[in-house]
Amino acid sequence: MNHLPSFSGVKLAAETLDGISMVTPFQFNSRLSKNLNCNVYMKREDLQKVRSFKIRGAFNKINSIADKARIKGVVCASAGNHAQGFAFACNKLKIDGVVYMPTTTPIQKVEQVKMFGDKYITVELIGDFFDDCQIIAKSIAENNNKIFIHAFDDIKVIEGQGTSALEIIEQSDKKLDYLFVPIGGGGLVSGVLTVFKELSPKTKIIGLEPSGAASMTKSLENGSVYKLDHIDKFVDGAAVKKVGEIPFNCCKKFLDEIIQVPEGKICQTILDLYNKEGIVSEPAGALSIAGLEIYKGNIINKEIGVYICGGNNDIFRTPEIKERALLYAKLKHYFIINFPQRSGALKDFLNNVLGPNDDITFFEYSKKNTRDKAPAVIGIQLKNTEDFDMLVSRMKKYNFYGEYLNNKPNLLQIWIK
Fold this sequence. Notes:
By secondary structure, this protein is α/β, with parallel strands linked by helices. The protein folds into 3 domains: 7-53 and 156-324, 3-Layer(aba) Sandwich (Rossmann fold); 55-155, Rossmann fold; 331-416, Alpha-Beta Plaits, CATH 3.30.70.260. It is built from 18 helices and 14 strands. The chain has helices at residues 7-17, 30-36, 54-63, 67-70, 81-93, 107-117, 130-143, 155-161, 163-171, 187-199, 215-222, 245-254, 263-277, 283-294, 318-328, 345-352, 387-397, 409-416, and strands spanning 26-28, 39-44, 74-77, 97-101, 121-125, 147-148, 178-182, 204-210, 257-261, 303-308, 332-340, 359-365, 373-381, 401-404. A 6-stranded mixed sheet has the order 1-2-10-7-8-9, sandwiched between helices. The chain has a 4-stranded parallel sheet with strand order 5-4-3-6, with helices on both faces. A 4-stranded antiparallel sheet has the order 12-13-11-14, with helices on both faces. A hairpin with a 7-residue loop joins strand 12 and strand 13. Helix 1 (7-17) packs across helix 8, helix 8 packs across helix 10 (187-199) and helix 10 (187-199) runs parallel beside helix 12 (245-254). The chain is globular. The two termini are 46 Å apart.
């Protein structure tokens, strides 16, 4: 069993990071507090220098490397935020580094890595998923005798991330009853557990994972680190197939509870944070707040802390975020419709099937001259969820209904991509 991070190590990391990382705010949020009938405070790691907590662990680790080893350079694999912290540290410490990122990484994160690292960083895009990218990066580092800086499965990295929890302890006027922490590979939650189990052991630490990449949940159920075969990579900062051994051991020993949050719920939270607080959050950054509502029955009249762990969101992802939020809220629905191949068929559909508040957002149809009917794929946005049953009833009554696509994502993607 790997040894665990130590509280003394976190305190040393805090000294190392003094003047390097920011002491980010721990802000009271009135909207969430009122809605959930408790006191909610947000740890704003999205306001960090690299817009995520990752600067803490990356710098703490790289700074610990002996001068002789630094000359050979360092390597990391990252979906984005660790890469930015890594790049910042390499630039600050004047060490050459190579960052390997999945080919699916949002371009905004790639450009930020190059900006923070300047002449000290080279970026290579390889592999479709973080886990695939990491295997390649570790192999290259080993073959070139360079030090690999792991994003989460490293004592020094974890102790660096734990400095954010030290700040929360210092910033809290009252003892927290619950602290909600996002989990990807598990580095942040391990650092938090190290601090809170020492200084505030009665605070319950709740881990949050995206439903489509619940690798820590599966590992804890399995009793050992478990690699998922497939994941939904939408929450790119927390979508890993395999958590770290050290974080797994920390969570197995100390984590109070872990829950999964649907990606659509995360998307709605991103939109709410932007529209109501003006906070730009990436999907992983909104993960913990999205989980609050799922857990709301347990936190009434409690003191609650929650992490916004990152704000590196690509604006070009907004249409997908809105789409996922509407699908999750059951306000957007896709169907295959059987359209009679005659004049006036579309008019009949609009007049007899579509409700007064229903809006067609997608329509694809191709006339087949050899058939009486031809399929059309149609997307309809509702104003109220309760309108759905009546919509389907009218489709069937007037012989338009073919197939419902929302519960068939693979088929849906073929049509609307």
